[in-house]
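User: Let's play a game. I give you a shape written as tokens, and you guess the letters that built it. Ready? Here's round one.
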């Protein structure tokens, strides 16, 4: 459903927003309902992001740093916060967005590599024959997963 909604928004709503030079949700709310609603919504989302999203991201990253380096969790959180904050402040949002593109590309590539290696290991062969053989074995042994 998400793909369908994105296509509908991109086809019908996005041109209207761009024509009216509306680029953010708070900007839309300011034009539609006034400055007070804009501030309430922006403040709510900022608080939510800082206390829910950012804390979870820092804790998960600190857990990884703690496991790899042996630093304490508190020191790992502080270190990650300083590095990420300085990167965003001094390198800029454009570079941060580019980093996201690189990370998503690597995640997709890594996922494909895992699939290829797993299917080849399942079949015991390599190359295209190994991929097809591994997939055939999965379909034969676990048909309920392919309905």
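Assistant: Ready! My guess for every position:
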């Amino acid at each position: 459903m998400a793909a369908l909604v994105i296509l509908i928004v991109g086809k019908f709503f996005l041109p209207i927003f761009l024509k009216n030079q509306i680029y953010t949700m708070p900007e839309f709310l300011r034009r539609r309902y006034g400055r007070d609603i804009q501030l309430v919504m922006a403040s709510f989302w900022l608080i939510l992001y800082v206390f829910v999203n950012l804390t979870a991201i820092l804790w998960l990253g600190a857990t990884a740093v703690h496991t790899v380096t042996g630093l304490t969790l508190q020191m790992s959180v502080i270190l990650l916060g300083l590095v990420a904050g300085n990167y965003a402040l001094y390198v800029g949002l454009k570079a941060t967005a580019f980093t996201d593109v690189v990370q998503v590309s690597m995640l997709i590539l890594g996922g494909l590599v895992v699939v290829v290696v797993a299917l080849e290991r399942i079949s015991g062969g390599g190359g295209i024959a190994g991929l097809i053989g591994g997939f055939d074995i999965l379909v034969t042994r676990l048909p309920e997963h392919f309905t």
